[in-house]
Each structure stands twice: as C-alpha cells, then as structure tokens.
Specification:
Largest sheet: 2 strands, antiparallel
Mean pLDDT: 87
Structural class: alpha+beta
Low-confidence stretches: none
Helix content: 10-25%
Distance between the termini: 27 Å
Strand content: 15-25%
Order of helices and strands: HHEE
Strand order of the largest sheet: 1-2
Length: about 70
C-alpha cells in the first residue's frame, strides 16, 4: 500500500521538505536478515522519512534529518 497524495502533502508540511523518492520499499527491496539492502540504500543520506504500514493498515514512522547516525 502506498501513501495517498494527501498523506504525502501532510509529510511535506510537517518536515518543510519535498518528498522526492522512495529509497527503500520492503515490498520490492531485499529485506531478509542476511542479505537486506536497507543499510546500503539509506547510508549517507539525510532528510529521511521512515513510514511503516502495519498489517492493520495503521501508519506510523519518523523523520530523520541527519546522516550521522548511520
């Protein structure tokens, strides 16, 4: 399930940034424990919005604006 245009607009209002691209999508990218590409795809990037949609379609996440945690 992708985000709606209204949800994306809300994220942009909260972060004062423009959402440009999906860096990692667990439905399309490798998310297995031994070979996950998650770290490689986010390493060195900043202004990341992490959005999680659970099995009940509840949406939560966080915004991280600094690359130093990686």
């Amino acid at each position: 399930m992708g985000l709606t245009n209204d949800q994306i607009k809300q994220l942009e209002q909260w972060t004062y940034l423009r959402c440009k691209e999906i860096v990692f999508d667990s439905n399309e990218d490798d998310w297995s424990i031994e070979t996950s590409t998650f770290y490689d795809k986010i390493n060195g990037k900043c202004n990341l919005i992490f959005v999680i949609v659970d099995e009940d379609n509840e949406i939560f996440g966080f915004y991280f604006n600094d690359e130093t945690f990686l």
